[in-house]
């Protein structure tokens, strides 16, 4: 999971709920002080939340972008059904992204909309783009996609790395019989035994938030999305067609990544014909670990 460096919202930002045709989604919204150059929708990954992007809000808003970061269905403050696996299938989550896109467009005055997905969120936004592209191709006379660009951050073409997949399978297996608090305590013991992770312990405030966020997850969402991560199909060739048809893409990562190897992400960028940015001194969450450099790369792509 991403660990936000802080939790205090910048002056440009506020919490809100975005109302869509598929329900309400908890969000953080940052507004530029002056003219709006464009807008962005930021989608978090597995076990993540809108707070993963908190350090990006101010630099992106200062550059003229209206930024909306959301909790996906089943995450933190959005919630979702506890007994409906289909609600958390990647196609359903992709439909949520399209509904959010429509709701943001309906607000008006926001300029071109840029779409970003982090980690598992990258595969969700990929699903949204593919569904929209298929619908556009079937429309009489064709149609354009509702996004000005796509960013895939710390995500890969298919399943996660085998070592991470094994840990995720274990989580999926125990969720039906163990409570989230019990699992959390096990995770904490494992991290204490890991010297490197123990040295990177967050502040007490952020640690309390991570605990609170974990307990707010819908277990069924973790089971379904975790199952996807260990067996995700490679849909890069399909996505490349949408990119070639006029959706500029950026593949961004840190120099290390435990979920998808960095060379695998580079190869995905080549297959997509996408820009490629590797952020120095960052791992799986450059949005939280190196927000200034990440914002710079995003602004270059959006511009």
TrEMBL record:
Annotated GO MF terms: hydrolase activity
Keywords: Hydrolase
Cited Pfam families: Abhydrolase_6
Keyword Hydrolase: yes
InterPro entries: AB_hydrolase_1, AB_hydrolase_fold, Carboxylesterase_BioH
Domain of life: Bacteria
UniProt domain AB hydrolase-1: residue ranges: 41-297
Keyword Flavoprotein attached: no
Chain coiled-coil ranges: none
Annotated protein name in UniProt: Alpha/beta hydrolase
Originating species: Kitasatospora purpeofusca
């Amino acid at each position: 999971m991403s660990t936000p460096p802080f939790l205090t919202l910048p002056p440009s930002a506020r919490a809100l709920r975005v109302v869509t045709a598929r329900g309400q989604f908890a969000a953080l919204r940052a507004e530029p002080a002056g003219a709006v150059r464009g807008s962005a929708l930021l989608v978090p990954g597995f076990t993540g939340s809108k707070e993963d992007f908190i350090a990006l809000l101010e630099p992106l808003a200062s550059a003229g972008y209206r930024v909306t970061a959301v909790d996906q269905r089943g995450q933190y403050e959005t919630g979702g059904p506890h007994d409906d696996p289909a609600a958390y299938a990647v196609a359903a989550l992709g439909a949520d992204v399209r509904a959010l896109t429509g709701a943001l467009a309906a607000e008006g005055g926001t300029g071109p909309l840029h779409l970003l997905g982090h980690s598992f969120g990258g595969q969700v936004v990929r699903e949204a783009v593919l569904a929209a592209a298929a619908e556009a191709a079937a429309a009489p006379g064709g149609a354009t996609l509702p996004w000005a660009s796509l960013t895939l951050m710390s995500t890969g073409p298919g399943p996660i790395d085998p070592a991470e997949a094994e840990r995720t399978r274990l989580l999926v297996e125990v969720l039906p019989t163990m409570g989230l608090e019990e699992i959390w305590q096990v995770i904490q013991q494992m991290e204490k035994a890991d010297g490197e992770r123990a040295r990177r312990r967050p502040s007490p405030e952020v640690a309390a938030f991570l605990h609170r966020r974990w307990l707010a997850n819908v277990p069924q969402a973790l089971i379904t999305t975790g199952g996807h991560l260990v067996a995700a199909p490679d849909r890069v060739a399909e996505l490349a067609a949408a990119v070639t048809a006029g959706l500029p893409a950026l593949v961004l990562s840190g120099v290390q990544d435990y979920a998808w190897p960095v060379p695998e992400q580079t190869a995905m960028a080549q297959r997509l014909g996408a820009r490629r940015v590797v952020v120095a001194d960052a791992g799986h969450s450059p949005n939280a670990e190196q927000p200034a450099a990440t914002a710079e790369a995003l602004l270059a792509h959006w511009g």
